[in-house]
Amino acid sequence: MSNVTTSKRDMTHEADRAKESDSGALDKAKDAASHVGQAVSGAASAVGQKASEVASTVGHKAADLASTVGHKAEDATAAAGRGMESLGGTLREKGPESGFLGKATDSVAGALERGGKYLEDKKLSGMAEDFTDLIRRNPIPALLMGIGLGFLLARTLRS
Question: Where are the domains of the chain?
Fold first, then answer.
């Protein structure tokens, strides 16, 4: 009977060691999983941060490009205004000075000079503000003009 008792104790002892071994393996597996989870989380965070940096850089470059295009458009508008003023002066110098054609030439030259001066001074941004103010002061005629232009545009595109 003592052999059976010793054998039972040995089996119990072996079972306890197996449980401890399983418990240790389970702890190691949990630790490994935790480390893998932290590594994945760190990698995902790094990728997210890099994507955010790239998006920010792209946004800044787009804003810079838009600003550059806006400045170039403003400069082109001012140059067109100077050209109109110059054309008005040339027309006034070389056109007839008296009679019906003289009055017409003077009138056209004056309009070109005034329009050119307006473009040179106001540029696109000033023109947009003036246009907005004009629409605010006259909403009904502006609406009717918009409808009329839309109708003409639709007829032109349909043909």
Answer: 2-158
